[in-house]
Amino acid sequence: MKLVSFGDDIVAQGSVEKLAKLLGFDFEDKSSFDICNQQIFRQVIEYTDNSEDVFLLIGWTHKQKLEINWKNETYTYKPDTVEYLDNGLNTLHRYDDIFFDDILLTQHWASNAFTLQQTLSNLNINYYMYNTQDCMYYHSKTKNYIDSLCKRHYHNPVNLRSSMKYMKNWNDFLLGKIQAGGLL
Amino acid sequence: MKYLVAFGCSHTNGSMLDGVSGSSYENTRNGFAGILAQQHGYELYNISKPGGSNQYIHRCIVEYITHYMDTKLEQLFLINWTSRSRLEFRYPESSAHIHDTAGDFNDKKSVPFTVGSNAKLFKDPRYKQLQNLSPYYINPAIESLNWAAWAFTIQQMLEKLNIPYLMTNTCEALPQNKITPKLNLNNYIKPHDTGSTMLKYLTNKGYAITPCYHFRQDGHQAWAEKLNGHLKDLNYVR
Fold first, then answer.
1. pLDDT tens sequence across B11-41
2. Interatomic CA distance for residues A52 and B50, integer angstroms
3. Predicted ipTM beyond 0.90
């Protein structure tokens, strides 16, 4: 059995490999620095051919990250970042409230998580999801999307303090969640 | 009671079907989705928006399933993917702006955003400015990967939920990429073939097209007949 870890820089630095050791699994690290949720969504989909004896650990990143291709270079565009190789990208900052509407970003994030859950379930691929540094925005316009997510396979998506960045002993915690959820 | 639920952009919305309206209740009822629903005794939900993006279509399918669908009733999904050069934005809850179009379960705060579309459609002038920059930040190669990813996960979800469906392309073909080999082509009409898009199929057959690239009643009738053949092949209708 192999634990395959997806996520951002926090996952990359978070020694998730220890969790694989605790589980007695091999380990494959698919996490990347400077990645957004849409890219994580696609990465997991690309991996779905390798469904035998894998457990996918999916760490969703901050919702305020967008994959933008600016003059044929791909950037992860963020509202709090101005240091890009092409300074022209900063032109977009005056529209950040349009790009980063919390309701819409949560709707898109939860929609991706929901269809990914359904996909992995349909393909009999075992998985667990968590947030690395952010949470979904719970609102009357996002509530039904979030409530439809399978919480047995997704650790508390609406609480910032439940994300990897704010938790201690993350590997032990995840191990407990995975075992308690009967996912193995 | 059984429902045909159609998702898509302006073509599914029936834009200009009457020769007048970009979006109207009558046009949403009388387009190809309405023709198929009436032909086979379905009630119609038309969940579409002129300028709607593939991201919007994916979100609306999830929204329908998680918010509105009565699982006790028979459903047939007709999913009509659109152009890659589009995104979905949203007017803030606090703003008075709405984007008012016809369609079922329509969130009037959702703003369809297309490269090169008429800037007059936007209530906030900053959207018009964003239009000028859009060729820089909307990338067709990335959007083709997203489109394939959304289509694949929707297929997997509908198969898991035992919901019959047919996918089509209205505006352009889906370019082949590293995700497209995963797609179930039985339920997706030749996704990589430009000639099988609604736009090309009907223009190649000689149906008249409006200056804004939409079809009248005869075109919708012909597209409905084509889709009907595929639905029969899948044993979804008789």
1. 999 999 999 999 999 999 999 999 999 999 9
2. 42
3. yes
